[in-house]
Please model this.
Amino acid sequence: MKPNVFYIGHYYDNNGLGESCRRYLDCLSSIRKVNLTSRPIYVTYNSISKLHKSNQYNEYENNKFKKYNILIQQTFPEYLEYHKEFGKNIAILEIETANIAASGRVDKINMMDEIWVGSEFSAKSLQLAGVFKPIKVIPEPYEILEYETEKKDFFKYESEIRPFIFYTIGQYSEKKNIKSIIMAYLLEFNKKDNVRLFIKTNDYRIENNDLENIIKHDMNTIKNIIRKPADMYPDVDIVCGYLSKKDIIRLHKSSNCYINSVRGDGFGSSAIEAALSDNQVINTKNIGSATYFNNNNAFMVNSIETKTVCSNSMIINAYTINETWFEPSLTDIRNCMRKAYNARLDKTIEYKSENFDKTIFSHELIKTQII
Model:
């Protein structure tokens, strides 16, 4: 008899967590040996993702069974609730910081029967904080073929003058460390270098035009610190707001090197997508995504453990003062950007993304681990 699975997650939210939930729900829905019910929960104001097929999950939202064998909750620890009448309770969590014992989350997590996380970092953080329930490290599932077949047409450049494109995706926050990426790029490159930095960012609390003006103001402040001649700075492009999943993949396929020099992550989905698109990746050491990236398949940035101070997270009280994350070295970010740029031009330098193992993220493999 097929098990009845009840999934609860943020799969209509327009943010990284929403994308992660959609990936998991899509994978669960492809497993023929389960009966699936789903219900959405919300964390952002613009809860329904623009351009998202709102009826895609209607079938599972309309499913009802008298009894369930498994309840899966993919959310923040604060939102977890244990329901014994739903059978085995599983939490899918993204833990981005260390020293979380005093965060108030551990008791909630220990109510669950099993925890799934996307990285060794997250598992270790939970264990050191006192989580004693079984923890599985499971990569997020991807449709690998999507990253092999999508067109490389996000940018419109003639092939002979096409620049080398560095890019990053994420909220404009301390965690994503975009200011340091901008500074490293402006320090390392000049107008004569055939490069561009593309920043795709968002903040649902303010208008896109206002966010773009904030970033441009910050960039001018950085330029005033660097003090190069105004005509010596390389180009920076900024897009604020929503891009569809298809356009995000087109962006990956049309770019060269993804910069994931963040202070913390629990999995690093955008960096993984970049690697699935055969792009070079620059990644911070010691964080969640370092489960999958190393000196063999990426350019790794040294980091030091520091207190977590984040004034502009989209989630209120997301972190406590006792928690820590990892500050990437600005010098290393610069050096890694230069190495990635040179690797593209000099065929004698190893192209690290060729050593990235894509298969561990496939639906086929993840299915064998989750149900």
User: Anything to note?
Assistant: The first strand starts at residue 4 and ends at 9. Residues 208-226 form the longest helix (19 residues). The mean pLDDT is 90. The chain has eleven helices and 14 strands.
